[in-house]
């Protein structure tokens, strides 16, 4: 556990004793001051809106698309980088920062066009769906893809988004883009994941670059597969069908 996280949990414990604060609109001058100080300190970062935090005297500011949050003093001169925790009255802890990110991710993913994804749907009732950022060359991506028929049989729809791990100027990009450009994307993606010899054909109008950017900036994908559940929670890796079903609550 990092020093920052330890400090934030102690502050969260104090908040739990004091009770939740009402969320109020931030004074415009305070918000302007905070944003100006942060932007002067690091003009390359992308700062979000200034919000009241549960802790008096500190304000929340999302940075780089909401992947991280800063807890900033009212004059913008100091901030804490990390997650804010609340100590529950009955025991245990809740990561308030991750709860906020989870809700944001759910909204972001639901806003994406399903027409730009490669979707494997159940033949019968769809009980749940998952989003999977995938690469055709990673072993666990192949393992998860082998589970797709079983997941479909359990009512789980698999919605693939492209995330070439080696970047957009790589052979991995050309391979995965070939699937998205194919007349039969599902069949082509399966063939590529099975290491079949598929002629590479990258069309100009493909969504791989935008999906890669989405994964990198909004979802904070760090490896493949990365699974985003319906509620916006993230599984950074492979889950077998039984655990996937349990996690989805079906």
Structural notes for this entry:
This protein has a 5-stranded mixed beta sheet with strand order 7-9-8-10-11, sandwiched between helices. The protein has a 4-stranded antiparallel beta sheet with strand order 1-2-3-4, covered by helices on one side. A two-stranded antiparallel ribbon has the order 5-6. Helices cover 40% and strands 20% of the residues. Helix 6 packs antiparallel against helix 7. The protein is globular. It has 9 helices and 11 strands. The protein is an alpha+beta fold. This is Thiol:disulfide interchange protein. Required for disulfide bond formation in some periplasmic proteins. Acts by transferring its disulfide bond to other proteins and is reduced in the process.
At a glance:
The protein has 250 residues and is of the alpha+beta class. The protein contains 9 helices and 11 strands. The strands form 3 sheets. A 5-stranded mixed sheet has the order 7-9-8-10-11, with helices on both faces.
Strand content: 15-25%
Count of DSSP-assigned helices: 9
Strand order of the largest sheet: 7-9-8-10-11
Please summarize the sheet with the most strands.
5 strands, mixed
The shape is globular
Low-confidence stretches: 1-22
- Return the string of H and E elements: HHEEEEEEHEEHHEHHHEEH
